Amino acid sequence: MNVYLLQVINGIGVGMLYFLLAVGLSIVFGLLRFVNFAHGAFYLLGAYFCFQAIQWGMDFWLALAVVPLLVGACAWVVEKVVLRHVYAQAHEFHILITVGLALVLQELVIVIWGPIGDNVAAPASLQGVVMWGSFIYPKYRLFVIGFTAVFSLLLWYVLEGTRLGSAVRAGSESTEMVSMLGINVFRMFSLVFALGAATAALAGVLAAPIRGVEPFMGVEALGIAFVIVVVGGMGSFFGALVGGLLIGVVQSVMSTLWPEGARLMIYVAMAAVLLLRPHGLMGRG
């Protein structure tokens, strides 16, 4: 099988994980105009909670369902207790408090699990490879592509076909108008923030068997998430999807063509998009 075609498929899988990571950040910013630098920490918690659940003997499939809900619940509490009080402040306050929250969560991970990373085994049913003629590919990575595609469709339906989604889209234009319609804006803020954290945690759970867990993976994830949001366009669901796939494929292909510069090319791609589309590929001008 052509190595570049294999890398493109790898890039699609990585890009779908990047989409899950970035879409929550994009939605939260689009609705709340809130710069959340703690977003990568929820990805970190998702990965480590999955690791701990498997260490306790929990089935991976159960962890896949429970961990994002648990992290989402934690984010819901944090939003109500801490973040709600700074929404009306300048973005500098948003940055300071969420960076502080991210550092606290990162240090807690180091205190509980130590500074050294660890591996997470893929479920037994997804270990090994799939062979179709000359096509050979790991089962787990194929599962990640399929699962994230289905989840993306469900998330799209929630945002486009439900009352919550209508309120979120209207709120991204004018929270005052939504409030006048009788919708509890603060409750909607809490739900959206929890949903964003849960999708980041889901990305962490799915990524754990691929890359393992280590305490600083949240910082790396946050940087990539911001790149994707900038490339795709602030507040855009499809922008996060397109941006995630673009960055994933660029990184994967460049890891073959120029391994040392693969990460650099992520930022080159971002710069190229911004030169052509300053508001992102799917952003509103």
Structural commentary:
The protein has 285 residues and is mainly alpha-helical. The protein has a single domain (3-276), classed as ABC transporter involved in vitamin B12 uptake, BtuC, CATH 1.10.3470. Helices cover 74% and strands 3% of the residues. The chain has helices at 3-32, 39-55, 60-81, 91-113, 139-161, 163-173, 175-180, 185-211, 217-232, 237-257, 262-276, and strands at residues 129-132, 135-138. It has a two-stranded antiparallel sheet. β1 (129-132) and β2 (135-138) form a beta hairpin. α1 packs across α9 (217-232) and α9 runs parallel beside α11 (262-276). The longest helix is centred in the N-terminal third of the chain and has 30 residues, at 3-32. The protein is globular, with a radius of gyration of 19 Å. The protein starts with a helix and ends in a 9-residue tail after the last helix. Belongs to the binding-protein-dependent transport system permease family. LivHM subfamily. One of its GO terms (biological process) is amino acid transport.
